[in-house]
Design goal:
By secondary structure, this protein is an alpha/beta fold. The chain is built from seven helices and ten strands. The strands form four sheets. It has a three-stranded parallel beta sheet with strand order 1-2-7, sandwiched between helices. The termini are far apart.
Length: about 220
């Protein structure tokens, strides 16, 4: 990479350490448990950003960092563990969707097309300071998400609506995760669309996906 004049992009999924700040800005340094079941996931992202910026400083690279918040869309694997694909996969198989905790936790989901548009806009922008949040600022509870998926899958397949079951909450999982995208709007005009307007883009494709039948 040294000596190459084109800009480089480091993409990261949204930071999980927003327990003390929501909406989460890029300047928030986090609140992570370094010794827990999710520590390698949370701290791994922090380490990656630190390494990227050290490399950028050492080699004077034009390097941009995007923090992606909860993207979804066609082609998601039913077994990848993400909440939307997990809900869709189980509903397609006629099984109740499973929620960790009470379902009152909220997330902010962005459609993959908006995410790609945001990444392109960031790469074409003059911004070269720190990370940039890319996501949707509209929150939705996991309970409401489950109901949207259940209704959408039943509508697409013509099958009955499945139920919703609850499991024990995951350790260190934040109750809210929402980006502050002010910087993205000002630096690269990043667009976003709410989950409810884009829900029709996931279920039909998931139905045809070969991994949709996996546990």
């Amino acid at each position: 990479m040294t000596g190459v004049s084109c800009p480089h992009l480091k993409v990261d999924v949204s930071q999980d350490h927003a327990l003390k700040q929501c909406p989460q800005t890029e300047s928030y340094f986090g609140n992570v448990n370094p010794f827990g079941p999710r520590s390698c996931y949370d701290e791994g992202k922090r380490v990656a950003e630190a390494l990227v910026f050290a490399y950028r400083h050492e080699h004077s690279l034009d390097l941009k960092v995007a923090r992606i918040f909860n993207a979804y869309g066609p082609g998601m694997r039913g077994s990848d563990g993400r909440v939307i694909s997990s809900f869709i996969s189980r509903a397609l198989r006629g099984k109740d969707v499973l929620i960790n905790g009470s379902g009152d936790a909220t997330r902010s989901f962005q459609y993959v097309g908006d995410c790609v548009g945001g990444l392109r806009a960031l790469m074409e922008s003059a911004w070269n300071e720190g990370p940039v949040n890319l996501g949707c600022e509209a929150e939705i509870s996991i309970n409401d998400l489950a109901r949207i998926v259940v209704r959408k899958v039943a509508s697409v397949t013509g099958n009955r609506e499945v139920g919703i079951q609850y499991k024990e909450a995951m350790a260190d999982d934040p109750m809210r995760r929402k980006p502050d995208c002010s910087l993205a709007r000002s630096s690269c005009s990043h667009p976003f669309t709410s989950l409810t307007l884009r829900s029709s883009h996931s279920s039909p494709q998931a139905r045809q996906h070969p991994t949709a039948s996996q546990p």
